[in-house]
Amino acid sequence: MGLLAPTRDTAGRRRYGAADLTRVAIILRAKEAGLSLDRIRSLAATTVPVRRRAVLREEADALRSRIRAAQASLDLIECALDCGHSDFTQCEHFRRTVAERLGP
């Protein structure tokens, strides 16, 4: 994928050093944050700090959006778990929460 460039020994086998392990950790954290491998590659290749910050700001905004969506989903699930109705879809609070999510 072009994200790692390990050295090779005389037999042509890849040799990973400490810098490679650090890079793998960065790649894994970026993947966990939702960045694609293409986006990670472009960040790694960018030597212009202003461009790197712009990309990171976009990714931070996207991650915040995903967090808000996940929190809204968790709130809905917790509402259903705490509901005293035998069918939580009949709960007024649950219906209101769903209606707010759907919008006008």
TrEMBL record:
Q: Which UniProt keywords apply?
A: DNA-binding, Repressor, Transcription, Transcription regulation
Q: Which residues form the HTH merR-type domain?
A: 1-46
Q: Which InterPro entries match?
A: DNA-bd_dom_put_sf (IPR009061), MerR-type_HTH_dom (IPR000551), MerR_fam (IPR047057)
Q: State the species of origin.
A: Streptomyces carpinensis
The name this protein carries in UniProt is: MerR family transcriptional regulator
Q: Which SUPFAM superfamilies match?
A: Putative DNA-binding domain (SSF46955)
Q: CDD domains annotated for this entry?
A: HTH_MerR-like
PROSITE patterns, from UniProt?
HTH_MERR_2 (PS50937)
Task: Note the superkingdom of the native organism.
Answer: Bacteria
